[in-house]
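Please fill in the sequence for the structure shown.

STRUCTURE ENCODING:
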């Protein structure tokens, strides 16, 4: 019997190779951070550019690591919009930092699966502890602590957190019935405002309620939810036989950072038995600064709360902090225990299994990067970062308020400023504003995004990237003003040209009317008889001697001896 052919071994990277190439990757990232400010913020790529730079087939044989790094620069970097660029003012910040990257590297290197306590106790207990730390730093109620009836967990995004909050609310409202029999059409209702993030409606769809279950509560002049409008809608729906299940209140809406009044909404939700979920995805982390905590006064009424460390708190995506006041409702909605996941610690009820706190089963060791960030910066370092962004935004708003070319359209308590350019009468303001936006973004120095307020386009300037300094904000303001002036001059020139063309057209029409009138005045006027005569009469008239020649004709006849006529 012949020996089988040996199976080729995979070319695994050895620890020494990893050490060498790992240093190269860290160097590459450090070099990228050093030069990112010189790159165009928004990628200049057009659809298909990146794929066109890739080979049609994957490599059959492994390639050198140098070739991989070379293609990072050749293929990937030109196709990136650089979220860590100091001129990135779009959407909201998507911070990362050295400690976060290193924490993620350690998490990736460990490669643990933290779905249950038993699969890696440190992954669970470190996460519990870090979330308790952050609950204290943000001034959240004690019910959110792991030592109480609730607790915190790191979710993949606030979109995911909004969904699990809704599922927990449905479980509580139905007494567990939704787990057994699902949701019934036309029974439950969910409340948002027109400013609530779209992920809440997506959560309603995923949960099986359908978009018709969403009720939109009116907002005030600052785009914050009106408590009296919520109360009226709840009463109306209850009277019609619906069961209100959840209100999503927002601290710092995506469009304008409007602040829903939690202190007024909370008692209304309590009285109606409605789950109060607070979406503070962007603004919540600002509460590490004590003087900013008043922006979310009333948070103690919340049944659940979410904020993103990966937006403004120097931690790379994904790192959503999510808390519930009653974890039994959350795990009741999501827990399921097949035999292959059973273990003594779980059966004893002595541990938290985070797989029951999220949609997915598997989970990364996300808490490591949060731990690294908090250990490196400390609470004061995080506060300094938040205060810097707020101060720069207030300074920018001050420049705009003092300038007659721009309006600051809504309150700006944090690091987002919404600006509406003032265009001349007759200019399509929305088209002009979007043209200014594209001109700025095409320039490569800055990147801004837009929203609408009162049905009109406005520019959003979101400050918060770690590399952004006052000089970068000043430069953004200069570019805004220069872009506005250029477009305003162009619009004025176009308007003047249109006015000249219109004046010339009117002058030409006037000349034509005058020439027509002059031609009419010079034309011979025929007598009515001549106008009325027939062709035969006209011919007969031609044979008659004209009256004025008759006397001369008689004289000629007399001279010739003829008889008088």
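FILLED IN BY: designer on duty
SEQUENCE:
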């Amino acid at each position: 019997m012949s020996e089988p052919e040996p199976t080729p071994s995979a070319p695994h990277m050895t620890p020494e190779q990893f050490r060498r190439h790992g240093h190269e990757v860290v160097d590459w990232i450090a070099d990228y951070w050093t030069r990112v400010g010189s790159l165009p913020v928004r990628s200049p790529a057009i659809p298909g550019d990146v794929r066109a730079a890739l080979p049609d087939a994957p490599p059959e044989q492994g390639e050198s690591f140098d070739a991989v790094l070379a293609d990072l620069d050749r293929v990937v970097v030109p196709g990136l919009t650089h979220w860590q660029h100091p001129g990135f003012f779009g959407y909201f910040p998507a911070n990362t930092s050295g400690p976060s990257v290193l924490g993620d590297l350690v998490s990736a290197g460990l490669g643990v699966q933290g779905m249950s306590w038993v699969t890696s106790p440190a992954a669970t207990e470190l996460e519990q502890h870090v979330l308790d730390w952050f609950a204290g730093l943000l001034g959240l109620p004690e019910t959110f602590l792991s030592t109480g009836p609730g607790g915190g967990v790191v979710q993949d995004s606030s979109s995911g957190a909004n969904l699990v909050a809704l599922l927990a609310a449905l479980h509580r409202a139905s007494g567990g019935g939704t787990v057994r029999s699902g949701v019934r059409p036309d029974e439950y209702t969910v409340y948002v405002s027109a400013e609530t993030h779209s992920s809440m409606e997506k959560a309603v769809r995923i949960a099986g309620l359908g978009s018709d279950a969403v009720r939109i509560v009116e907002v005030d002049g600052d785009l914050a939810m009106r408590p009296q409008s919520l109360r009226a809608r709840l009463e109306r729906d209850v009277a019609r036989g619906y069961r209100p299940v959840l209100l999503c209140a927002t601290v710092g809406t995506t469009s304008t950072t409007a602040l829903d009044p939690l202190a007024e909404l909370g008692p209304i939700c309590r009285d109606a038995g409605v789950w109060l979920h607070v979406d503070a995805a962007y603004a919540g982390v600002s509460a590490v600064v004590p003087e900013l905590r008043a922006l979310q006064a009333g948070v103690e009424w919340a049944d659940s709360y979410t904020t993103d460390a990966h937006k403004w708190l120097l931690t790379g995506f994904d790192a959503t902090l999510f808390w519930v006041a009653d974890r039994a409702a959350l795990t009741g909605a999501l827990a399921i225990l097949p035999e292959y996941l059973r273990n003594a610690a779980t059966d004893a009820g002595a541990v938290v299994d985070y797989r029951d706190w999220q949609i997915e089963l598997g989970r990364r060791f996300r808490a490591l990067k949060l731990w690294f960030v908090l250990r490196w910066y400390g609470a004061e370092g995080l506060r300094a970062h938040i205060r810097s962004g707020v101060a720069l935004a207030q300074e920018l708003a001050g420049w705009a308020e003092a300038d007659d070319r721009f309006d600051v359209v809504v309150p700006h308590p944090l690091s987002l400023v919404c600006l509406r350019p003032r265009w001349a009468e007759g200019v399509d303001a929305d088209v002009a504003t979007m043209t200014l936006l594209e001109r700025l973004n095409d320039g490569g120095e800055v990147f801004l995004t837009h929203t609408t307020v009162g049905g009109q386009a406005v520019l959003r300037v979101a400050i918060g990237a770690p590399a952004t300094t006052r000089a970068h904000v000043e430069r953004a303001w200069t570019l805004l003003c220069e872009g506005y002036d250029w477009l305003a001059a162009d619009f004025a020139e176009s308007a003047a040209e249109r006015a000249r063309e219109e004046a010339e057209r009117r002058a030409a029409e006037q000349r034509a009317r005058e020439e027509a009138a002059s031609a009419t005045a010079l034309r011979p006027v025929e007598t009515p008889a001549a106008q009325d005569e027939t062709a035969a009469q006209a011919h007969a008239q031609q044979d008659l001697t004209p009256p004025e020649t008759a006397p001369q004709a008689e004289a000629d006849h007399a001279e010739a001896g003829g008889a008088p006529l």
